[in-house]
Write a structure and sequence with these properties.
mainly alpha, 77% helix, globular
C-alpha cells in the first residue's frame, strides 16, 4: 500500500509541477490525487471506522485554512472593488526609476505582510503599468515586486499561504515569526533592491501615475473600506491572542464587519449601481480553483502523514544529511521548482510538533526558506505566477535577469537568520 500511495502522490505532484506544459490545471491533479490516495487507503486498510475518523480530523484542519483564505480573499476583493488601494498608489509620484524601485520595493514588502504576497503583487504590478511606458523597464520592476512580496509575506502569519498554514497548525506564533524572520526578510529584499537601484540610476519614469478610480465610489467610501478591510486583516493575530480562537474565526468576524460597513455606505444606491461593490460580487471574483488546489494537496499530504510515510522520510533525511539547516534551505530551493504549499504541508507532517514545539528553529527557518525560495524562479510562487500572467514574463528572461538577484537575497537572508539565531540562542 505504501509504495502505491507514494507512486500516486509523485504522479500527482509531477502533474502539479508541470501544469503549464501539460495544460492541466493543478487543482484537477491535486483533487484527483487526493481522491485516489484516500480510496487506496480505505480499501486496503479495511478499518472503515479508523479511516473515517482520520478523514474527519484532517478535513477539520484543512477547513480552517480554507475558511481563512476565503475570508481574506473576499476582503481584498471588496477593497479592490472600491478602489481602496488607490490610497497607496496615488501617493507615489517620483520621476526617478532608481528611487521608484526602492519605494515600490518597500511598499510591497510591508503591504505583503498585511495582505498577502499574491494580492500585493497584483496591486503593485498594476501600479507600475500606470507609471512606466517601457515594457522592459516594467519587467525589471515586476521581478523585484515578486522578490519583495515573497520576502514581506515570509515574516507575517497572514502574508503567505505557507506561513498561514504553519500559524494555524500551531508551529509558529504571530510574534515568534516576526521576531525570528523579519531581519532575514529585510536582507532578502535589500540586496537585490540595492543592486537594481544602482542599475537603474539615471533612468526616468517617463509618465505620471493615472488615477484608477471607478467613479462609483467617493473618496470617503474608498478610504473607509480600505481602513476597515486592512484593519480586519491586521487584527486577526490580535484576535487569536486575546480569544484563543482559531484565526479563521477572526477573519470571518472581520469580513462580517466589512460586509456591514459596505452595506451601510451604499444603502441609498439602486441595486444595479452598487452590484459590483457588494460581497456577493467579491465572492464571485475569488479564484476558487486555487482554493480547491489547497483542499486537494492538503488532503493528499494528510494520507502520507496518517500512514507514517512522512515520518520515515524525516528520519531518512536526518540520518543522510543530518544538518537541519541544510535540509530546510534545500526545501526552500526546491520550492522554486515545486509549489511551496505541498512542500510545507509535507514538512508539517514529517516533523512532530511535540518534538519540535512552537517557534522552534525548524519551523521559523522553514517559514523563511519556503516563503522566499520561491522567488528563485518565476513559477516558484503564487506571486511569480501572477506577475508572469500580468506582464507576460518569459521563464528564461526571469532566470537570466532576476534569478541571480533572488539567489543573492536568499543567501543573505539565510546568513542573517542563522547569525541572529546564534546570537540569541547560543
Amino acid at each position: 500500500m505504501h509504495t502505491l500511495l507514494v507512486i500516486v502522490f509523485v504522479l500527482a505532484y509531477s502533474a502539479i509541477a508541470f501544469e503549464h506544459p501539460l495544460r492541466v490545471n493543478k487543482s484537477a491533479s491535486a483533487l484527483l490525487g487526493a481522491g485516489i490516495m484516500w480510496t487506496i487507503y480505505a480499501v486496503t486498510t479495511g478499518n472503515h471506522h479508523l479511516v473515517t475518523e482520520q478523514l474527519n480530523e484532517n478535513l477539520a484542519a484543512t477547513a480552517q485554512i480554507i475558511f481563512f483564505l476565503l475570508g481574506a480573499m473576499t476582503i481584498v476583493e471588496l477593497v479592490d472593488a472600491h478602489d481602496g488601494f488607490e490610497v497607496i498608489t496615488s501617493r507615489i509620484t517620483t520621476t526617478s526609476q532608481s528611487v521608484l524601485i526602492v519605494l515600490i520595493g518597500i511598499v510591497t514588502f510591508f503591504l505583503s505582510a498585511m495582505l498577502d504576497n499574491l494580492t500585493t503583487t497584483i496591486v503593485m504590478v498594476s501600479l507600475t503599468k500606470k507609471l512606466l511606458d517601457n515594457h522592459e523597464d516594467r519587467l525589471i520592476f515586476a521581478g523585484l515586486i515578486v522578490i519583495a512580496a515573497n520576502a514581506g509575506g515570509a515574516w507575517s502569519p497572514i502574508g503567505d499561504v505557507t506561513t498561514t498554514m504553519l500559524w494555524i497548525g500551531g508551529q509558529i506564533s504571530s510574534l515568534g515569526i516576526i521576531k525570528s524572520v523579519f531581519l532575514a526578510s529585510v536582507a532578502n529584499l535589500a540586496i537585490p533592491l540595492i543592486v537594481v537601484s544602482f542599475m537603474l540610476k539615471g533612468k526616468s519614469v517617463g509618465k505620471k501615475a493615472e488615477k484608477n478610480g471607478s467613479g462609483t465610489t467617493t473618496k470617503f467610501q474608498r478610504d473607509l473600506v480600505f481602513a476597515v478591510g486592512l484593519g480586519a486583516l491586521v487584527m486577526v493575530p490580535v484576535f487569536k491572542e486575546i480569544t484563543h480562537l482559531p484565526p479563521f474565526m477572526g477573519i470571518l468576524t472581520g469580513l462580517g464587519v466589512l460586509w456591514l460597513v459596505a452595506e451601510l455606505v451604499h444603502k441609498e444606491k439602486p441595486d444595479e449601481e452598487k452590484e459590483h461593490l457588494t460581497i456577493v460580487h467579491a465572492l464571485a471574483k475569488i479564484d476558487m480553483a486555487s482554493i480547491l488546489f489547497f483542499v486537494g494537496i492538503l488532503m493528499a499530504v494528510a494520507i502520507l502523514e496518517n500512514t507514517h510515510i512522512l515520518t520515515a522520510l524525516a528520519t531518512w533525511l536526518n540520518k543522510t544529511i543530518g544538518q537541519q539547516s541544510i535540509i530546510v534551505a534545500f526545501i526552500g530551493v526546491i520550492s522554486a521548482i515545486i509549489d511551496n504549499v505541498p512542500l510545507v504541508a509535507a514538512s508539517m507532517g514529517m516533523y512532530d510538533i511535540h518534538q519540535f514545539p512552537m517557534d522552534n528553529f525548524l519551523w521559523t527557518f522553514l517559514a523563511f526558506c519556503a516563503g522566499t525560495g520561491g522567488s528563485l524562479l518565476i513559477i516558484g510562487s503564487a506571486a511569480g505566477v501572477a506577475a508572469m500572467g500580468l506582464e507576460k514574463i518569459n521563464f528564461f528572461w526571469y532566470v537570466k535577469k532576476i534569478s541571480w538577484l533572488a539567489m543573492l537575497g536568499y543567501i543573505a537572508g539565510i546568513l542573517v537568520f542563522l547569525i541572529q539565531f546564534k546570537l540569541f540562542h547560543g
